[in-house]
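**Fold tokens**
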Amino acid sequence: MKFRRPAAIFAVVLVALGLAGCGYNTIPTLEEQAKARWADVQNQYLRRADLIPNLVATVQGYAKQEKDVLTSVVEARAKATSVKIDASQLTDPDKLKQFQDAQNQLSGALGRLLAITEAYPDLKSNQNFLALQSQLEGTENRIAVARRDYIDAVREYNLSLRTFPTVLWAKTIFAGNKPMAEFAASEGAQSPPQVKF
């Protein structure tokens, strides 16, 4: 009988090690990583939204004749910040598309604003405008990186729900977990922007 007790302990340890190595923790870990990446995306959009009022105020002083474009930037910013999506809605492709469309509208308005600066050299001479323009360009790059990181994290999470051995956990313990929605390029994103003066 003494021989069975160490064998039982050994069996329990062996089962515990087997469970630890079979991917049970993979699904929640990847889910949390994807949510953290989404928080990074939102943080970069917030940073952009905070910069835009300063950029618009500076440009308004130098480009009064272009109020239409500046107004569209302000309106697009208001719309982009009014569409909210949190981590619990990441499985809803319609909500993610609505959020992405609002952000794309803001990006288009900002593109038109930057095109105006090319047409009016006086604006380029203002150091405040150049600094804010540089910040905005940096922010757009940060948004692109944050989106890419989110897409990678979601891809890994969604893949874990469909591949062995984590699919076993996804179908049993984590049966309530759904694949997360990914960013998709908006219609016309492959076309170059049209700049008209």
In short: Residues 102 and 160 are 30 Å apart (CA to CA). The longest helix spans residues 26-62.
